[in-house]
Specification:
The structure is a single chain. By secondary structure, this protein is α/β, with parallel strands linked by helices. It folds into three domains: about 5-125, Response regulator (Rossmann fold); about 140-310, P-loop containing nucleotide triphosphate hydrolases (Rossmann fold), CATH 3.40.50; about 315-450, Helicase, Ruva Protein, domain 3 (Orthogonal Bundle), CATH 1.10.8.60. It has helices at about 15-25, 35-45, 60-70, 85-95, 110-140, 150-160, 175-185, 205-215, 230-235, 250-260, 285-290, 300-305, 320-335, 345-355, 360-375, 385-390, 395-400, 405-425, 430-435, 440-450, and strands spanning about 5-10, 30-35, 50-55, 75-80, 100-105, 165-170, 195-200, 240, 265, 275, 280-285, 305-310, 345, 380. The strands form four sheets. The chain has a five-stranded parallel beta sheet, sandwiched between helices. Helix 2 (about 35-45) runs parallel beside helix 3, helix 18 (about 405-425) packs across helix 19 (about 430-435) and helix 19 crosses helix 20. The protein is elongated. It starts with a strand and ends in a 5-residue tail after the last helix. This is Sigma-54 dependent transcriptional regulator. Pfam families: AAA_lid_14, HTH_8, Response_reg, Sigma54_activat. Keywords: ATP-binding, DNA-binding, Nucleotide-binding, Phosphoprotein, Transcription, Transcription regulation. It comes from Noviherbaspirillum album.
């Protein structure tokens, strides 16, 4: 029951004090309330795991307290106490959202047993959620890299993952820094805990502190209920701070405090809360240069770079491209619900391997998805690639276009048929497509393919 936060609600001070002392000795953090109004205020501020509440109270009863707490979004478990052994009262409390029920006078060992049971329920609920995420993750195929730079990176990941060291992952946009962060989590002792990704560049600056560290109700305009915050949601797991270079200087100070103290202070709260979180950060910016320019704190930079991993751009590890493309075709077909097997023509693989990929792996995945959508009869051709990529025909491809192989002769014949159909239709490509018995989009893709191969001027 250690680290469990328990609220004891009773209008009799002696009962509150006895319960509070016994729970504190068992390792709980205990908060007290003398009536339902005070209890509700503390509940909506957030952080309470279990509330032990009397039913009969001077302002409004415990059952109404449960109803109001649930309406405010409070997820604490309630254990109700009453001096009246009424089954009807017990049923009403459970219907209102209470988890358990005790008859006064309560025994200390019984209270501890009931609270331990609530702790187990909360733990099991959290574990079930994590297990569902893990099952979904294990169903995904894992890609194995071929290039020496990525093999070296995998070796470093295997070294740092089992530790609790803070890790900084750098690299150009789209290189897969988030994938590296998730691998670190999955290979760590925290794999059973949550993996919480945060895009620091996507959160408005005025909301970032609240998003990261949480807030209590009424701490600012619009804070109509308490928020736990992403750091506390990642407790016992890993928080991935993507685009860390976008973090404002004021938040950099607070993040440094979190790293050093292992605790967070919600906005509007005077109480810090322990956060057992492993931090993995990522950026495509030059943090050392930002430090020199005074835009990033030097002390935070050194805290983040305890272990630094750099992900090279795709153009520097072309060995990965062929297998990466096949991996993306398999995964993309499942994601897009595309039926059947897909075959990629050799020329397509040559073009993809020759392109420089300024958008890196993310751009490659987008191109593969587009090709899967456009491919006809499960065959991915050069015409299914974006024009700016399809035009980059390797030298071997140009030579092949003028060769005498069966494929080359078929292409030239197909090109002549399509050219004649367009001419016969007076240049109207829609009419030409209808006469040829193909779709207009297919005709355009064929024309793009022939232009890329130099068969059309």
């Amino acid at each position: 029951m250690k680290s469990l936060e328990v609220l004891v609600v009773d209008d009799e001070p002696a009962i509150r004090q006895i319960l509070a002392v016994r729970l504190a000795k068992a390792g709980c953090r205990v908060v007290q309330a003398a009536d339902a109004t005070e209890a509700l205020e503390k509940l909506v501020q957030g952080g309470i795991d279990v509330a032990i509440s009397d039913i009969q109270m001077p302002d409004f009863d415990g059952i109404e307290l449960v109803r109001r707490a649930r309406a405010a979004g409070v997820d604490a478990n309630f254990i109700m106490m009453t001096a009246y052994a009424s089954v009807d009262t017990a049923i009403e409390a459970i219907k209102a959202g209470a988890s358990d029920y005790m008859i006064k006078p309560v025994r200390n060992d019984e209270v501890l047993h009931r609270v331990a049971k609530m702790a187990d329920m909360r733990r099991l609920s959290s574990e079930n959620r994590v297990l569902r995420d893990m099952v979904n993750a294990t169903q995904e195929e894992v890609f194995s890299f071929e290039s020496p730079p990525m093999r070296d990176l995998e070796r470093l990941i295997a070294k740092v993952a089992p530790t609790d060291s803070t890790v900084l992952v750098t690299g150009e946009s789209g290189t897969g820094k988030g994938v590296i962060a998730r691998r670190i989590h999955q290979q760590s002792g925290r794999a059973g805990g949550p993996f919480t990704p945060v895009n620091c560049g996507a959160i408005p600056e005025n909301l970032m502190e609240s998003e990261l560290f949480g807030h209590v109700k009424g701490s600012f305009t619009g804070a109509d209920k308490a928020r736990k915050g992403l750091f506390l949601e990642a407790d016992k797991g890993t928080i991935f701070l993507d685009e860390i270079g976008e973090l404002p200087l004021a938040l950099q100070v607070k993040l440094l405090h979190v790293i050093e103290e292992k605790s967070v202070r919600p906005v509007g709260s005077e109480q810090a809360k322990k956060a057992d979180v492993r931090i993995v950060a990522a950026t495509n910016r030059d943090l050392a240069q930002m430090v020199a320019e005074g835009r990033f704190r030097e002390d935070l930079y050194f805290r983040l770079t305890v272990f630094h991993l750099h992900v090279p751009p795709l153009r520097e590890r072309r060995q990965d491209i062929p297998e990466l493309v096949r991996f993306m075709v398999r995964r993309g077909a499942k994601r897009l619900n595309a039926s059947g097997e897909f075959v990629m023509e050799p020329e397509v693989e040559q073009v993809l391997g020759a392109y420089d990929w300024p958008g890196n792996v993310r751009e490659l995945e987008n191109v593969v998805d587009r090709a899967l959508i456009l491919a006809e009869e499960g065959r991915i051709t050069q015409a299914d690639l974006p024009p700016q990529i399809a035009r980059l025909v390797p030298a071997s491809g140009v030579a092949a276009a003028g060769g005498n192989g069966l494929r080359d002769q078929v292409r030239r014949f197909e090109c002549s048929v399509i050219t004649k159909a367009i001419a016969d239709a007076g240049g109207d490509r829609r009419v030409a497509a209808r006469h040829l018995g193909i779709g207009l989009s297919s005709l355009y893709r064929k024309i793009e393919e022939f232009e890329a191969l130099g068969l059309l001027s």
